[in-house]
Design brief:
Elements (H helix, E strand, L loop, with lengths): L3 H8 L6 H6 L3 E6 L11 E5 L2 E7 L5 E5 L13 E2 L4 E2 L5 E3 L5 E4 L17 E4 L2 E5 L22 E8 L3 H9 L4 H4 L17 H4 L4 E6 L3 E9 L5 E9 L3 E5 L6 E11 L2 E10 L23 E2 L5 E2 L11 H6 L8 H10 L17 H18 L17 E5 L5 H9 L10
Helix pairs in contact: 3-7
């Protein structure tokens, strides 16, 4: 059972909080590269872990991520001039480079710029994503070299959408495999609505037995579903601390999909969606955005409005009761929109002390344990799990296995390609 105090520990992410300090020990997806597309382009606002920041790309193409507010008189640097390798405040002309150094003071007859430093976070660009590190400089981990960041741009997609609830609600919804063939199923063979078909193994399989195996980056876990013909359908996932999931890309054995649930503040989370082909074939047009979700940039997510969805809590996710009656289980268009709906409807921060969990929730229980232990480790000066490199080449997988087949051994080969079984922990 989660106490109210533990719930507070797990959900609050501002500077100085146990979870906030823990998440700051990892590289964090901050923004998509196209948000700062070229040198000296306009700066953009970024809110991460309760902090208001400004991102800009300087004349040399380097990306800076600074405190939004100029330390002189606290004007917003979003108004700033991006020029000559620095961001200049329009109020009095103080200028900052990507490392946060004040390099010029237009209004001061005698400069003291060398005494001024604005908060600046290291940034790296990988996989068309700009990642930030917001923790202690001497604890900076290796760069987040997920396999999908290393494939050609033609072989991957990345999108994001803002969600109106705490980050942990998003994460727990994502790693919960038992809900997917219920919440996301179609109930008609004639509908064109996004959803899991009734004839898929995901829906045809029985309720899953979950198996969780700890690793040094988090855990791998399996949803094991008996089939009517005595076969077994298994979906194998990875949870990478603190906010990453890799999942099988249903119907596309050459692909892996995944999510990051990045805290914006205590009541909002940016849900990142990524996927990639690990084979030679590039993604098809249908695979180059959130597969089957209805959340491609052109129709649902408003980029200029903070990556908010048209289907949102304010309009009840545009639920259609006729569609719910005749075509899909929810009547809400889009798989990821359905996830947002059930997670947002719980309120900004769910009271976990009132939950009643069962065996299908063991992945959620284990994630909470790992997160709680990680906060204690960080408080004691140690390194939390998942800051190493062991997750660099992991993959998710799924398959239907006949009676008597050792599905675990078969899937391990797919989940750790090219890695000897004796080295897998």
């Amino acid at each position: 059972m989660v106490t109210k105090q533990l719930n507070k520990t797990l959900t609050e992410i501002s500077p100085g909080t146990p979870m906030g300090e823990t998440i700051r020990r990892y590289w964090i997806p901050a923004l998509l590269s196209f948000e700062v597309p070229e040198p000296d382009c306009p700066p953009v606002r970024v809110r991460l872990l309760g902090e208001d920041l400004i991102a800009f790309r300087d004349t040399n193409g380097r990306v800076g991520l600074l405190d939004e507010f100029c330390p002189h008189r606290r004007a917003s640097l979003w108004l700033g001039r991006n020029e000559e390798c620095g961001l200049r405040c329009v109020y009095h002309g103080w200028k900052y480079d990507v490392d946060g150094n004040c390099v010029d003071q237009m209004n001061e007859p005698i400069s003291f710029a060398d005494k001024i430093q604005i908060t600046a976070y290291p940034a790296v660009e990988m996989g068309d994503v700009i990642w930030a590190y917001m923790g202690p400089a001497d604890k900076k981990p290796p760069v987040p070299r997920f396999e999908w960041t290393q494939v050609p741009a033609t072989h991957r997609y990345t999108t994001k959408v803002q969600q109106e609830c705490n980050w942990l609600q998003g994460l727990e919804g994502g790693i919960d495999t038992s809900h997917a063939p219920i919440l996301h199923r179609r109930i008609s063979v004639d509908t064109e609505q996004p959803g899991i078909p009734l004839n898929s193994a995901f829906v045809q399989g029985k309720a899953p037995k979950l198996q969780v195996e700890n690793t040094d980056y988090g855990y791998r876990y399996y949803g094991v579903r008996p089939m009517e013909d005595d076969g077994t359908y298994v979906r194998a996932y990875h949870y990478v601390m603190p906010f990453t999931q890799l999942r099988p890309s249903t119907g596309a054995p050459h692909m892996v999909d995944g999510h990051f649930w990045v805290p914006i503040d205590d009541h909002n989370v940016m849900v990142w969606n990524f996927g990639y082909s690990f084979e030679e074939k590039p993604l098809s047009p249908d695979e180059s955005y959130e597969r089957g979700s209805g959340n491609n940039f052109g129709t649902d997510v408003i980029i200029k409005n903070g990556f908010r969805s048209i289907r949102n809590k304010g309009n009840n996710w545009l639920i259609d009761r006729e569609v719910q009656k005749n075509e899909t289980f929810t009547g809400i268009k889009g798989i990821n929109t359905q996830d947002r709906a059930v997670q947002e409807c719980m309120g900004p921060v769910v009271d976990r002390s009132k939950e009643f969990l069962g065996p299908a929730d063991i992945a959620i229980v284990q994630a909470r344990r790992l997160l709680e232990d990680a906060t204690k480790t960080v408080e004691d000066g140690g390194d939390p799990p998942g800051v190493g490199t062991s997750y660099y080449h992991i993959r998710a997988a799924e398959s239907v296995f006949g009676p008597g087949v050792d599905w675990h051994e078969e899937l391990m080969d797919d989940m750790y390609p090219g890695k000897p079984a004796s080295t897998i922990r």
